[in-house]
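Researcher: I'm preparing a figure for a lab meeting and need a structural model of a single chain. I don't have an experimental structure, so a prediction will have to do for now. The sequence is pasted below. Please return the structure as tokens so I can convert it later.
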Amino acid sequence: MLNRAQAPQSHNIQGMSLVSPDHKVLENGLNVWIFQSKDQPLVKAEFVFKNRFDTLSENPLRNTALSALMKEGTSTLSSAQIAEAVDYYGAFLMPEFSFDYTSYTLYTLNKYVSQVLPLMYDILVDAQLPQQELDNFKRTNRQNLQISLEKNEFIAKRLFYQTLFGDNRYGAMITDESLQELDRLDLLALYTQQIQPANCTLFLSGNITAEVLADVSEFCGSKWGNTGDLKQSSIADQYQLSNQYNKEVLYEHRPDAVQSAIRLGRQSLRRTDPDFPALQFANTLFGGYFGSRLMRNIREDKGYTYGIGSSLVSLEHTGMLVISTQVGTEVTAAAMQEIQKEMNALQHDLAEETEINLVRNYMLGAMLGSLESIFSHADKFKAVHMSGLDLSYYDRYAEVLHSMNAEKVRTMAQRYLKYEDMVKIVVGKM
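Model: Understood. Here is the structure written out token by token.
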């Protein structure tokens, strides 16, 4: 009989088995990566477009607005008709936007691909970006902006990006003026330049039958043409991120605040850097999971906050390390001191072997736990493919995690986790 009072035997995680996709290039040059799972009744089609910026000072909201408005009407279908058709077939259409990419993800039952894909095709080639929908977008976002400007966390985030990156796509602040300046003709020009096969990668996952592939080849290949207006983003050549940012504490006093928003960080590594997995390990130990040092000290021991975290973000042109929390205003200074103390300890003291093993098992377990479906295998591939890497990255990632020890964690902390190198933002009271 199973003894439930006795913990099951544990085993070391040695490797990960990731699904390798098939690759197909359609007639128009569109690259399609196919993840096959015959057990799935669903198809997920994710169209990922690289964001285009012509100048460093260009309004970054143009890409956000384009992402939101593409599904709001074509020359033959209104916004409501598109939404009704998607609902009728039980499909789901989701636009997403990040600093570097705009994506449209379509989920649909396998049997309705031939009915739903023409809708997606219409959006890709015939979006009208109606003026009325643009006006609604501007009005809604101006109202949301006014509400957000009352939140300390939002102000701290804006100041952090602006201080860290300056006046460019990563650091630009959303303002009421930038929302009002959005112009339909500018958006249509961006749509023509950006939404075309030569600027797109399609990740196709689920039960990809021969019939599905035929529909995809027709609507996303032979029918969908390039506009011939794809310019290489000049920002890619001009981009020179400065590391000469202000490292003093930037403080915005809010007299009515009951909590202070704290945000610290620095420019950091991209996923392509050889140190990235080792830094990810050190950062996880420092503040990257619920049992991290920051959580144990500042939440569990001191009770200053409900949560504090530290994360690494890999962007196209750079990366960043971000530590964020909100604390009671009476302990703002004390919380900053404890963050600094934990950084110093990581740089000077060797971690216990039990802590190293705990973090290693957590990271490997989290990696395995995230591979629950063919869609998550596609997400893992997309993450490395869009960084110019392949699936062998995850083999190197696992090797690095297995090789980590206390000395390597300390070395990473000495290189990348220095309090004096951090941008430090406080909004609230000190």
